[in-house]
Amino acid sequence: MKARSAFSIQRDVIFAIFVREMITRFSNYTLGNIWLVLEPLLMMVLFIGLFGARGRGAYGFVEAPVFIFAAFLPFRTLWTATMRQSASARGGTKGLLEYRQVRLFDVFMARTFIEGGLFVVIGIILGLGMMWLGYDPWPDNLLLTLGYCAVLWLFAASFGMLACMVGSVAREIEKLVSMLTMPLMFMSAVFFPMTIVPQQYWVYLTWNPILHAMELIREGWMDNYTSPVADFYYLFGAMIICLAFAMSSYRLTWRRIVAK
Predict the structure, then answer these.
(1) What does the buried/exposed string (b/e) look like for 241-251 if buried means 16 or more CB atoms within 10 Å of the residue's CB?
(2) Structural domains counted in the chain
(3) Which of 15, 76, 97, 216 could pair covalently with 148 via S-S, beta carbons 3.0-4.6 A apart?
């Protein structure tokens, strides 16, 4: 029998973890996979109710539901969910690491692919629902929007991996990451464009790379919106630096983590 390559073994391991994670995560809910769409939908309905349901709102360039959909879905799925799933990879799948073929990095990869896939599936389902209601929810520049979303996705995966590695030394990191999620939502221009923020505050808010991601996604989604602060190179540089730290810390500590 021909020996299998290391790549084919890792591919099958990641796929097996992918399937296991999907079954484990959603089989515990009574509504099953419906909860995939229901959870972000309920959150969007809540914020749409707060910011105005059908009017064009205070922004003037797009309906409030489309505005919330364009920013909240990437933040909720690509940033928050991907980061949390990566940060909790060590504790949630510790039993798998007893198998010789499974590495902690495979768990990171599987969980990251799940959240990326869920973003696409949930976006399509919610977008079709909004079309049925009479909105036009689709990005004006689809490829550009997906490119910005991919950078945010990789940034979240890198940050979560780094938090997981640091959390193996200081367990308080996990609690700190959870505590920062809600404040970060309001600091990242998820529910408002930077055009309505007084210019004297830009210098403080633009330190946050996620704000740049939200503004760039908004630019790709809406042709008639131009961000006054968005900087792709700043976002991409932050992602690369975070990825480098995450991979370095993983390389140095993964054996010790698995041995615990």
Answers:
(1) ebbebbeebbe
(2) 1
(3) 216
